[in-house]
Amino acid sequence: MIKNYFKIAWRNLVNNKTDSTINIIGLSIGMAACLLILEFVNYELSFDRFNKNAEDIYRVTNDRYQQGKLIQHGTITYSAVGPAMKADFPEVVDNTRVEPMGNPILSRGTNKFQTENSFAVDNEFLSIFSYPLLAGDEKTALLEPNDIILAESLARKIYSIRNNDYSSIIGTTIQIGTDSLPYKITGVCKDVPENSHLQFDLLYSYTTLYSGPNAYPQSKYDFTDSDFWHYIKLRHGTDYKALEAKFAAFSQRHFQGSKVSGNDEKFLLQPLTKAHLYSNYEYEIGKTGSSTAVWGMLIIATLIIIIAWVNYINLTTARSMNRAKEVGIRKVSGATRSQLIRQFLTESLLMNMVALAIAFILIFSFQASFNGLVDRSLSLSYLFSQPANGVDVKWIIIGGLLSGILVSGFYPAFVLSSFKPILVLKGKYSQSGKGVFLRKLLVTTQFAATVTLIIGSFIVYRQIDFINKQNLGVNLSQVAIIKPPMLSSFDSSFVIHETGFREALSAIPGVINAATSSRVAGDETPRAFNTHRTDQHTDLKLTIRNFGVDDGFFKLYGIPIVAGRNFSFSDYNADFHKLHNIVITESAVKSFEFASNDDALGKSISVFGSNWNIIGVVRDFHQKSLHFPMEPIMFFPTLGTYNVISVKLNTHDIGSTIAGIKSIYNSFFPGNLFDYYFLDDHYNALYKSDLLFGKIFALFAGFAIFIACLGLLGLSLFTTAQRTKEIGVRKVLGASVASIVFLLSKDFIKLIVISFLIASPVAWIVMHNWLEGFAYRIPISWWIFPAAGLLAFFIAIGTVSLRTVKAASTSPVTSLRSE
User: How far apart, in whole angstroms, are the C-alpha atoms of residue 113 and residue 482?
Assistant: First the structure.
């Protein structure tokens, strides 16, 4: 019996080539697009779930409020917070601190090696997280000062490892940076998985921070210096929200934030599994993504596959009249309704299986291009092997496909099997009003989704275009950032030495000018708390961003000085405590309530326990992305071995210019590793998730529109075929081609108008919420909605007209002979 079902199903598929082709194309593209999106979604949702204790690990976050306003939503806090939480709350079974150490240079003999990223961590880090050691003892590897763990790829770069014998390098020593004391290798760990929000290739023992000649006492146990990241492990089954409720008393018990930073502080917990996608935090040290992009793509995937299945339902039920006699004869011959339902479900299954096979071919063909688009190493094998949110994905996908196949096949099977054989064989069968209404409802829903996607595409494109064209107040083009000379000694001669380096660079024909700074545009900048004017007795205490620059910084980046003067050579000193002049931005002038830019000159503010004289005011600029508002900034006249070097280049022969810069760099800073990147790439990376979302949104919205048009094409073919005789009669009676085209299209036009009315408010709500993530954003202009509606209208009418114009132009003799 089953064999017979499939034989008949295959025969119907082959005999109805047009319908079958439309259905298979729509379903295969829909399934391929859906599975590709699911690859991306599953990868993003898999972050940090490889940790065996992932559901019990949380990171401590810290919100700071100034005069009732949230001024910092960050991941950094005080070194004592984690240990104190473990001591105070039985729910906290373990904790570890993480302090970023940058990308130091390692030296082994005369060979030097650049690291990618490093952390100083407590030894408990190894038991809380699942970063297994290939060599070394997890319990003791990071207990002593100057103990380090290398990732396997870094270990292989430095040492000749044979037969994966990493134990051979345990106990050996290596130099890091300019530290005089050697570091002992106590472990080698597996390379960090790509889906870990923490990425490193070197781990220091945390005790290194507060031991030895370069000790940092505040890192041991302190409630005043907020420069540390904390992760805690809770007892399994703990309600972390209930624990959060106890943090207010915890804060009061150990310190009062308003006395430390001049701000009210609130500690919170974020589940580790949300750290990647839900990181709208400042001072992020992890690898972040966008929950908006992920859930937006998942919604699009759902819409695409639903649109494809709706097409199948519409086309199958629309052609039910063509199979009415077949059903009547089968019933007269003794076929039961259940047998007919099984037959038509088999047809649905076969159609979907053929489409799925083609979908797999499409995925394999375009996988590399899709991976390049999303900058991920994705595959179907990864999709089916990795759980998402603790659920086996392959069963979700298989269950979803089977459910869709059954649902899309059940209604046509129900309709077709319900025909009364006597009426059908007498020629008195006509389609039910309920069936026509359902098809109209499905088409309306389908095109409402399509119009929503078109509106969304318009708004996403305009916002991204706005970002690209926004005047940042700082010129980032053709600026190469040279990594700092971290292996050079910082002493009283360094100021002169670095000035000489800048002058030497200016002799290179391709170099316009150069400058040094502790930060560049796109970098997170530190905050200073409790800042206030010294010329007034006021309770106004502010928080202000700050970083160090040299005297060429403002000129290189095109930041105008609107009052006062720039830094001069006399403003600099190797001893930070002897510095006393600063430059501030216009936002800082307003924040400190000076009457004007000129009024601020000569005044002083108290920062870090010292008074600083304001010698200049510069125009505001966007230090961070447009997701964040501008903040007041103050600039110190500092030079240092950890300051990056900005070099403004002309566009002529950049390769030779970089080679010349490298030669001079090596002569001034021997022993350092020369490396560079371009600043516009660095800054644009801040919008990586937004740009990716825009590209994927536009691409798959296009697929959804195409599939919806396939459905309209199929329905228009059927409608035209059903009314062929009517068309011939109307033409004989003098009807024009235009009037017939309108007659055949008007039902579709009504449905498109209704779709537009449904889609517009939905699209406004969704896109308004997306734009809320930008401090600087476009308004949702009213004209976008009619423009999207007209585009959808012309797309639909163009699709329908492919058949209706041909039918209306056909000779009436031919039309009347067709029946």
Answer: 17
